[in-house]
Amino acid sequence: AATAGAPRGAFILFEGVDRSGKSTQAAKLVEALNAQGTRAELWRFPDRKGTVTGKAIDEYLSATAAAVSSSGTGGTEGGKSGAGLSDQAIHMMFSANRWEKSRALLEALQQGVTLVVDRYAYSGVAYTAAKRVPGCGVAWCKAPDTGLPAPDVTLWMALPPGAAAARGGFGGERYEEAGFQEQVRGVFAEVRDSSFVDVDASGSVEEVHQRASC
Ligand code: NYM
Ligand code: MG
């Protein structure tokens, strides 16, 4: 039940390409909010652990190229059936992953908890549309997320082209490739809406934190 009289928490979203500093900044923002007495929690999507879809998504993202091609011929890679999912199927999985958490997300907000969320539906659209699969344009990509709770603000981690890749540390997951990341950035630019606020994501962790928390 909602805490009587508690003001609704804020839904603060971080979006950006891989290696733009979202996870670091989201964690720091939660820490700062809690330190100033605002109840805040860090959530992230994909939620790989607390969901039915999380395991398939994790298998898909971590699959090697070899595992992907063998699953394409019907192999299941030791039961890792997420590895060879089609572009359409994995898109639905990412969306379903958000829907799995949507009720709990609304309940937390209603109870006055501020949620700082690391990626959400904009990532869903950007990464799939960036693949340029025929029939899977932006409108198609947005459809399954229609009706999800919307963020109050989306902090866009703004970096010049190539800067995120130059930071290095791509972990070898699917999508972590500089050329593809630039396509992803392009779709983000196309789908940004009035919830977006640009945060200059260059410079030190502390500098970006100051910008993200004002
Ligand atoms: N990703 C994330 C998608 O492709 N679709 C989605 O809906 C979401 C939320 O998952 N490279 C991709 C973007 C990332 C990857 O996320 C894993 P993270 O935040 O890098 O762990
Ligand atoms: Mg990543």
Automatic annotation (TrEMBL):
<comment type="pathway">
    <text>Pyrimidine metabolism; dTTP biosynthesis.</text>
</comment>
<dbReference type="Pfam" id="PF02223">
    <property type="entry name" value="Thymidylate_kin"/>
</dbReference>
<dbReference type="GO" id="GO:0004798">
    <property type="term" value="F:dTMP kinase activity"/>
</dbReference>
<comment type="similarity">
    <text>Belongs to the thymidylate kinase family.</text>
</comment>
<keyword id="KW-0808">Transferase</keyword>
<protein>
    <recommendedName>
        <fullName>dTMP kinase</fullName>
        <ecNumber>2.7.4.9</ecNumber>
    </recommendedName>
</protein>
<dbReference type="GO" id="GO:0006235">
    <property type="term" value="P:dTTP biosynthetic process"/>
</dbReference>
<feature type="domain" description="Thymidylate kinase-like">
    <location>
        <begin position="85"/>
        <end position="211"/>
    </location>
</feature>
<keyword id="KW-0547">Nucleotide-binding</keyword>
<dbReference type="GO" id="GO:0005829">
    <property type="term" value="C:cytosol"/>
</dbReference>
<dbReference type="InterPro" id="IPR039430">
    <property type="entry name" value="Thymidylate_kin-like_dom"/>
</dbReference>
<dbReference type="GO" id="GO:0005739">
    <property type="term" value="C:mitochondrion"/>
</dbReference>
<dbReference type="GO" id="GO:0005524">
    <property type="term" value="F:ATP binding"/>
</dbReference>
<dbReference type="GO" id="GO:0004550">
    <property type="term" value="F:nucleoside diphosphate kinase activity"/>
</dbReference>
<feature type="domain" description="Thymidylate kinase-like">
    <location>
        <begin position="14"/>
        <end position="64"/>
    </location>
</feature>
<dbReference type="InterPro" id="IPR018094">
    <property type="entry name" value="Thymidylate_kinase"/>
</dbReference>
<dbReference type="InterPro" id="IPR018095">
    <property type="entry name" value="Thymidylate_kin_CS"/>
</dbReference>
<dbReference type="InterPro" id="IPR027417">
    <property type="entry name" value="P-loop_NTPase"/>
</dbReference>
<keyword id="KW-0545">Nucleotide biosynthesis</keyword>
<keyword id="KW-0418">Kinase</keyword>
<dbReference type="GO" id="GO:0006227">
    <property type="term" value="P:dUDP biosynthetic process"/>
</dbReference>
<dbReference type="GO" id="GO:0005634">
    <property type="term" value="C:nucleus"/>
</dbReference>
<dbReference type="GO" id="GO:0006233">
    <property type="term" value="P:dTDP biosynthetic process"/>
</dbReference>
<keyword id="KW-0067">ATP-binding</keyword>
